[in-house]
Amino acid sequence: MNIANWLDEAGVRYPNHPALFEGRQQVANYGAFVALVRHRAGYLIDGHGIAPGDRVALFMKNCCEYLELLYAIWWVGAVAVPINCKLHPVEANWIVDNAQVRLIFTDGGEVFTRGLLPQTCRELDREDMGTHASITSAPDTPCPRRANDLAWLFYTSDTAEYSTGMKLSHGDLVALALRYSTDVDSVEVGDAVVYAAPMSHCAGLYSLIHVHRGARHVVPESRGFDADELFGLASRLGNITLFVTPTLFTYLVERARRQGYDGEGIKTAIYGDAPMCPTDGHGAQPRNIRGDILGTELRLWLKASANDICVP
User: Fold this and answer.
1) Average of pLDDT values for 73-102?
2) What is the DSSP letter of 107?
3) Would you list the domain boundaries of the chain?
């Protein structure tokens, strides 16, 4: 039950379907996506001796390489340790040490000062893929995993001095992703998930069901949240889904109201991490999914905001 099997299957079913985008520009279809992941998996094995169960961390801003590395880690049976890129390197180092990470990929490969990381961990640039000649063990299919094998070691902020770790197995990830279709929304091949929030957290988890369905994965050129950029991507690409925090959601609605943008191209927004004020949605009633996670069709809210003549 390796979660990477979904990508392998998508590569077979939809090899020519668009997969990875940097802004509006497609950079890989599903066939190429799988090939990139296999190559990176081979590099993890041949270049660094990564074996099933080893921990590999990702400490970087959103990018297409994030998905390539995430699935390559699972492809070899290793454990992904995504770390919030907004943390200070000292804070990230605590997670690296606590999780017993062997490799950590970063933007540029020089985020940590010499001697900060444990001696057992090496930092690499996210673009470091080795050479084709040096890779001889690129596995054709994902390493077999059991449902209770660890897949994602998730660290979240805590009121204590340090972060709290949470273990997600391959079975957990499969169950979580499949519940999306029943609890939140359906996902079709023509849909697109836009990563405007950190992929180390909820936004990255929503990649799973979209890979399973052969949908598009879009990293904004800003590699983060920019309302105007998101409106442009939605209008151009269509059927986009995104995860937003309450603060970003409120800003998104206010920006749309002032621009007269009616939500064209936005299919669904996943709104989470805090209660929602009644005025946030101009009376719209979102469905309560699981505790503090809300799923709703944002387009109706944006239309209400854009047409609200009472707002200056």
Assistant:
1) 95
2) S
3) 28-174, 180-306
